[in-house]
Amino acid sequence: MKSDHKLPAPNRREFLGNSAGLLLGGVLGSSLLAAGESSAAFRAANMPQPSSASPRRIIIDTDPGVDDAFAILLALSSPELKVEAITPVSGNVPLELTLPNALRLVEIAGRTDIPVAAGASVPLTRRLITASYVHGEDGLGGVNFPPPKTKPVTETATEIIRRIVRAHPGEVTIVAVGPLTNIATALRSDSELASMIPNLVLMGGSISGGNITPAAEFNFYVDPEAAYVVFHSGIPIVMVGLDVTRKVQLRDDDAAALEAGANPVSKAAGRIARSTIAQYRRTGFPGFPMMHDPLALATLLDPTLVKLKDFYVNIEIEGELTAGESVAYDHAPVRHSAPLESGGTLDGRNADEPFHTNTKVAVDVDADRFMRLLVGRLTNRAS
Questions:
Q1: Alpha-carbon distance values, 262 to 268, 277, 379 (Å)
Q2: Cβ proximity of 265 and 378 under 8 Å
Q3: 44-97 pLDDT, tens per residue?
């Protein structure tokens, strides 16, 4: 199995020093941000926009994962979306499980035409932390689906992301619902790539506290350095984080509706839902499974499901207790920590640079309407 490999691991200060040049010269590209021109304005003026009559091209970067499975099945059940590729990454469980899980899901949906490319097995600079205590040892709630017959493509996640984005500049939305290692690796490998991606919708982060630590959400905690690269890439970002995803839970009646569905997608989703709910009860985990990732995906189907607010979001990568925290500012001036020994601010900006936003953050959600859409799509009912 060919997969993206871990980059040489600098220490944190080396990473910051290297990133300053990378982010200002490589990932962003000197031609992209000139004379105060914003990346969003640049795209509006220079990028072809997909027709509203044609499906929206997306790449799903994912670590399946129970809620990842629901996001993938939702995407494959939605004619508004054209899934160009699925790129598994280590996260909820290791790559040796997320990769076959992604292959299982395209088989269940009858969409083995969609390429699945192996991504990073480890974060950029850190050791891997997983969440099998939530997702089960197999990542799919312990359902134990048969091994997939479909094989991954020979391209790595980095290679396929670059190829597809370059083939359709300005048309491919990245939907990232796992740690951002694959996306950061692709951006670091191609200095022009960020300017070709019109937007990135991600599940990750929080402006109201974390779930793996008091400060950090799981996806950003697993690979803070990757999140840092992405948030400084200049790509317009929609961040669907814990502020809204905590409010969308899969309950017993939802599982029953999925189990009663007549198609393979609904039946599989019902099995995953029922098994995961049972695991929550066995282990004393509070509440019900949260549908973090399908909510992020669903914002492409119905943007009115969430309320968005503009923020400048930065990622904490130095803190021993706060690594992976997403720090959001909604007003100027943006205050930073004391300069590093090399001088300058953490993100390479001058202290007197005008305030700007880089992320639309979901701050509220119509949870009931989202759950009706999710269950309705997976069961082939009108939503």
A1: 11, 21, 7
A2: yes
A3: 444 444 555 799 999 999 999 999 999 999 999 999 999 999 999 999 999 999
Q: Could you tell me the pTM of the whole model? A: 0.86
- Alpha carbon distance, N-terminus to C-terminus of the chain: 39
Residues 292, 296, 299, 305, Cα dihedral to 10°: 30
Tell me which residues are annotated as active site.
Answer: 292
Give the bridge partners for 310, in sequence order.
Answer: 360
Domain ranges of the chain: 57-378
The helix-helix angle for 252-259 and 264-283 (nearest 10°) equals 150
The topology (CATH level 3) of 57-378 is Inosine-uridine Nucleoside N-ribohydrolase; Chain A (3.90.245)
Tell me the pairing of strands 306-315 and 326-329: antiparallel
Rounded distance between C-alpha atoms, residue 307 and residue 133, angstroms:
31
Tokens standing for residue 228:
């840092």
Q: Kindly state the tokens that stand for 213.
A: 């630590």
Tokens of 17: 């020093």
H or E segment to which residue 311 belongs:
strand 306-315
